[in-house]
Specification:
The chain is globular, with a radius of gyration of 26 Å. The chain has a 5-stranded mixed beta sheet, with helices on one face. It has a 3-stranded parallel beta sheet with strand order 4-6-8. It has 9 helices and 8 strands.
């Protein structure tokens, strides 16, 4: 079967063919330890869908560019400035100041105007301050965001070709998620693994919690 489609292009992934029928996907953000931002995980489904259906690919190798990391996981700095985690304040954030004082100030200025001053000369009261979204809308927004994130990572697991992850250096968070979606995992002696979402108030809900117990030698160790 002849190949008709060209591979999707992404500045964050290098696609090469080191051997016949072998595709090499290199995570390409070494200046940030290959940490993932949203455009990176959104690029995973089209890339692995293409490789899954390509007749010239029979196996896939995934590695990270640079000498320091396979991937440091999610780019926390970027996630804290954009996206759902940045748009919504925490539940215990202080509520906006009441507008009673502003309304009273406008009322006082109205009645203190000289006699005969037309009402149209008064400035309108300021609009009420914006309030944080209610819990239901916040939960819905986060649900949509997390589900999309999970589906992007799961595109590796759904790929019909065997995937080998070759890890080195830091393999944190999302790096563990990606490796657990692969069929074979190979790591260098300097590889360091960590699942540290709990330290920043998050759950490892992109795939680690459901997959690690099936891949590790000891399920009780995973639970601990």
């Amino acid at each position: 079967m002849a190949e008709t489609d060209s591979p999707p292009k992404s500045q964050y992934f290098n696609l090469t063919y080191p051997l016949p029928y072998v595709a090499h996907v290199e995570i390409n953000r070494p200046e940030k330890l290959n940490a993932f931002i949203e455009p990176m995980w959104l690029a995973l489904p089209p890339l692995f869908s293409y490789l899954s259906n390509s007749p010239s690919v029979r196996s896939i190798i995934i590695s990270g560019a640079g000498t320091r990391a396979f991937t440091a996981g999610l780019d926390i700095a970027a996630a804290s400035t954009s996206g759902p985690l940045a748009q919504h304040p925490p539940p215990n954030a202080p509520s906006p100041s009441p507008i009673t004082s502003d309304l009273n100030a406008n009322a006082s200025s109205l009645y203190s105007q000289p006699t005969g001053t037309p009402y149209t000369s008064q400035k309108p009261p300021p609009p009420p301050p914006s309030s944080p979204p209610d819990p239901a809308r916040l939960a819905r927004s986060l649900f949509t965001h997390i589900t999309t994130f999970q589906n992007c990572v799961s595109s590796l697991e759904k790929c019909t070709k065997p995937i080998i992850t070759v890890m080195h250096g830091y393999c944190y968070g999302l790096g563990v998620d990606l490796s657990l979606c692969a069929d074979v995992r190979i790591c260098s002696p300097d590889t360091r693994f960590a699942v540290k979402e709990i330290d920043i108030g998050l759950a490892a809900d992109i795939g680690t919690l459901s997959r690690l117990g099936k891949s590790a030698a000891s399920a009780s160790w995973v639970k601990d």
